[in-house]
Every structure is written in C-alpha cells, then in structure tokens.
From TrEMBL:
Keywords: Kinase, Membrane, Phosphoprotein, Transferase, Transmembrane, Transmembrane helix, Two-component regulatory system. It catalyses: ATP + protein L-histidine = ADP + protein N-phospho-L-histidine. This is histidine kinase. Its EC number is 2.7.13.3. Coiled coil: none annotated. Pfam families: HATPase_c, HisKA. The lineage of its organism: Bacteria, Pseudomonadati, Pseudomonadota, Gammaproteobacteria, Candidatus Reidiella.
C-alpha cells in the first residue's frame, strides 16, 4: 500500500508540474499576444496622427499659398470686411477650427485676440516659428478647448508673415478611441523627462479626473509600447490595464488548483479502491495460505503412515506378496512419496513467504553431506535408470551450514537430474574448492533447457513448457526453494547448459 501511495503522490506531483508548465505557457502566450496588440495599436496610432498632422500642415500651407492676395491686403489694410472674408474662406477649408490669426514677419499678431484664444504658449510657438522656421507641435491648454497649432509662412508685396490656425485636440482623441483595444489604454505623451499626458481616448488631458498629468512610476511600469510620432514631439503610448496580467494569472492559478484538486480526488479515490482491493487480496492470500498450511499439515501425518505401511507390506512384514501386487504397491509408494514431497515444498514455500524459515547452522563436512544425499536418493534414481557418480571430491571441506537444508538442495538437484536426464543416465557430481569457496556440481546428459526458459528456471512454479518432451510432474518449487536456501548461506546457485547436450546445476558456499 505504501508503494501505491508513493505512486499516487508522484502522479499528483507530475500532474501539478504539467499544469504549472501549461499555465506558464498560456501566460507567456497571453503576454506575447498583448505585446503584439500593443505594438500594432501604438504603430497604428502613430501613423494615423502623423498623417493627420501632415495633412493639416499641407492644407494650411495650401490655403496660405492660394490666398496670398487676400492675406497681403489684410497686412496692408486690416478691416472687418477683409477679416470676415478670410474667416469665411477658412471655414470652407477647415470646419470646426478653434482659432485663427496672422502675424507679421516679427511675429506680432495682426488680428486682435479679443477672446484670448491665442495664449502665451501659442505666442511662444509663433515666435519660434518666425525665428527658426519650425516649431514643436504640442497641445496647448485653454480654459475652453485644448488645441494644437498649425502654421504656414506666406509673402505678399515684399512683406512676409505667418498664418496661424488652431485645431481641437479631440481630433487626436478620436483617433485614439477608434484604435484602442480592450484592456489597453492609448495616449499621446510629451516625453520631456516627465512623460506629460497630452491626449487620451477620453480627449485632452483636461478631461481626466486627476491632479497630476504626469505619468506615475506605476503607470510607466505598465507601458508596453512607446512609438515616436514623426513630425511631432509626441510619443504614442500603449499601456495595459492595472489588473490585466494579475487577474489572468489568478485565473490560471484558480483553474490549475481546481484541476489539480479534482485530479487528486480521483487519484485518492483510486488509491482507496486499490487499498480495499489490496486488503481483500491479502485476506484471500491469508485464507489460501492458512488453507494450504492446514491441508499440508493434515496430509503429512497420514502420508507418513501410508508410506510406512506400504513399505512394510512390500517388504513382506504382513506376509508373502505376489509380484503383481508388489508392482501395484510400488506405484502407490512412489506416488505417496511424490505427494509427500509436494506437501514439503508447499510448507517450505509458506515459511519462505512469511520469513519463518530459520537456519540451524553448524560446522559440517560438505563432502559427507553430498555422499549422504547420493545414498539417500539412490533408490529414487533407479526409478529413472539413473546412476549417481561422485567423480571428483576432496577428502573433506568444512562449511558452516544447516545440514538438513543443504541435503534438501542436493535432493532437489539430484532428483531433477534423474527426472530430466537421459534414459539410463550417468549423473556426475563434482566437488571442487577454489580459494575461499567450494562448488558442488550436478551434471545430467539429457535434452538440456530451452534458451527461452533460462531466465525463469529459478522462479516459483516455473516448468519448461515444451510439449514435445515428456516431463515428470512436479510443483516447480524445488529450484526456487534451493536458491533461497543457498543465498541464505551467503552462497550462489546457477546452471550451465550447452544447447541440448545436458545441464550442469551448481552451487557455491563459503569455506569455514
């Protein structure tokens, strides 16, 4: 169950990491989209305003050029009739203009400004234009209308002057309103070191509900694009709304949290279901183990009695037995011994699984143990026509082992060699010492082990599945139990198989 819990936590962690990466990717895409939007908006506004200013300048210059005679007459003879005529022509060219005036070559106003429409800022720009031939286009404040000025020079009768026309700044605000995108604010600023606001989508800065028309540090941090407007001193600025990115980030975090919470709930439900299934499996496994243990113990006693009784009958203790009856009794005895071996294997497996297999280790002569195993399995080998031969062995080898368990391993190896070796086989046993290790080898000359089965030889219930070869019955537990026993003695067990020319099983143990 702990493993399932660890897997669940890792799964939730991976899901959280994936959601975090997706959220970061979505936020990055969101910001990139608004960056591109701001770029397009600011560039579009800059182009539109640049064209508007250029068009106004062209029109004022054209008007001055086409009306040079009238402008000259006003310079020479200023009267109401000429002013009314000039005003009518200007209305035809420039509907909804704010103010108009003429200056002489020194910048002096030739038309009296009774309404105060030409303020100090306008007069300063006029002086600059007369002196330098150029001026910086900017928004001029007025109590009624914020405006910007366009000027054009003219010359009539040897006298030079300038035509001055002011336009409503809301012309620029209209362009900003038509271009501004949702969650963004477009404005014109005068970047004189203080980033003075000139015009916004709401119109001139006078329309804003604020006391300071300079951009604050927080507003500067929200500027996404600044594009200078050709022919002016303005910059088109696009800034995002204060909550644009923070609200989207919160939205992503909320979505990620909800998805992760739902995913965690599903994982926890699956974990709970797996836990219940694991609990039921363990209970079923325990019931199975208890059943096998009880059945095995219950079978062991009667099997011992049956084997003993059959042995006595075969040996004539109960009287003379005919050859035919003796053959049948031999079959019964062999099968009872086989059944007893199966019961012992099941009990050993139960001990291994529960960790209850204990070794009673003491000093033994391994050569004597091997000889005892050969002698004990002599009759078993005769059933298959097999002969056990100890080919090579030292006089003695002292090892610290559980003698009964080593005999059990030898019995498994010898019985397998007899069962799976060639008919009337000569099973060869070799004991050799190499340094601090002693090796015991058991070699048969049977069909060998299929290469595809090599990796499964020592697994539980593993039996080679070649139906073309007749195999004696067995549980498939012997080699698995042997491996557990040898490894518990700090030893190793393995096999060599040269195709179909026989098999050598061997184990190694440390020498005392």
């Amino acid at each position: 169950m702990k493993r399932y819990t660890l897997y669940a936590l890792l799964l939730i962690l991976l899901m959280g990491s994936l959601l975090a990466w997706l959220s970061w990717s979505r936020f990055d895409d969101f910001r990139r989209y608004h960056d591109e939007t701001a770029q397009l908006s600011a560039e579009g506004v800059a182009d539109e305003i640049s064209r508007l200013v250029a068009e106004k300048q062209r029109m004022v210059q054209l008007f001055a050029h086409e009306h040079v005679p009238q402008l000259g007459e006003i310079i020479n003879n200023l009267d109401d009739e000429h002013l009314m005529m000039l005003s009518g022509h200007i209305n035809d060219y420039f509907p909804n203009y704010f103010a108009v005036t003429l200056t002489d070559e020194k910048g002096k106003l030739l038309i009296e400004d009774f309404d105060g429409l030409v303020g100090d800022a306008c007069r300063h720009d006029i002086s600059t234009f007369i002196r330098d031939g150029s001026y910086t286009l900017r928004i001029h404040p007025h109590i009624d209308v914020y405006h910007f000025d366009i000027m054009a020079p003219f010359e009539s009768g040897g006298k030079r002057g300038a035509l001055f026309i002011s336009f409503h700044a809301d012309l620029l605000g209209g362009i900003l309103r038509s271009t501004q995108t949702p969650s963004h604010r477009l404005m014109l600023i005068y970047p004189s070191g203080e980033d003075l606001i000139e015009v916004t989508a709401e119109g001139p800065r006078i329309n804003l509900d604020r006391h300071d028309y300079r951009l604050s540090a927080e507003e500067r941090s929200r500027i996404m694009k600044r594009i200078p407007i050709p022919g002016t001193a303005w910059e088109a600025v696009d800034m995002h709304d204060p909550e644009l990115f923070s609200s989207y980030r919160q939205q992503l975090l909320l979505q990620m949290a909800v998805i992760l919470l739902l995913f965690s709930a599903v994982v926890m439900a699956m974990l709970y279901s797996l836990g219940r299934a694991e609990q039921r499996r363990r209970m079923a496994e325990q019931h199975k183990d208890d059943f096998l243990s009880n059945v095995s113990h219950e079978l062991r006693t009667p099997l011992t009695s049956i084997r003993g009784s059959l042995g006595l009958v075969i040996n004539g203790v109960a009287g003379e037995v005919s050859e035919k009856a003796k053959g049948l009794l031999d079959i019964a005895l062999n099968n009872s011994e086989r059944l007893s071996g199966i019961v012992n294997d099941i009990l050993d497996l139960k001990k291994i699984e529960s960790g209850q297999m204990e070794l009673e280790q003491s000093r033994h002569d391994l050569v004597m143990l091997v000889r005892r195993a050969i002698e004990s399995n002599h009759s078993y080998g005769e059933r298959f026509g097999a002969e056990y031969v100890l080919l090579e062995a030292p006089d003695s080898v002292e090892v610290e082992v559980d003698g009964n368990r080593i005999l059990q391993v030898m019995t498994n190896l010898l019985s397998n060699a007899a069962k799976y070796g060639a008919r009337n086989d000569r099973v060869e046993i070799v004991i050799s010492v190499k340094g601090e290790r002693v090796r015991v080898s058991v070699t048969d000359h049977g069909e060998g082990i299929d290469e595809a089965f090599h990796e499964r030889v020592f697994e539980r219930f593993a039996r080679e599945g070649d139906s073309s070869i007749e195999r004696p019955d067995g549980t498939g537990l012997g080699l698995n139990i042997s491996r557990v026993i040898i490894e518990a003695h700090r030893g190793e067990i393995d096999f060599d198989c040269a195709g179909r020319d026989g098999t050598t099983f061997y184990f190694e143990l440390p020498v005392s």
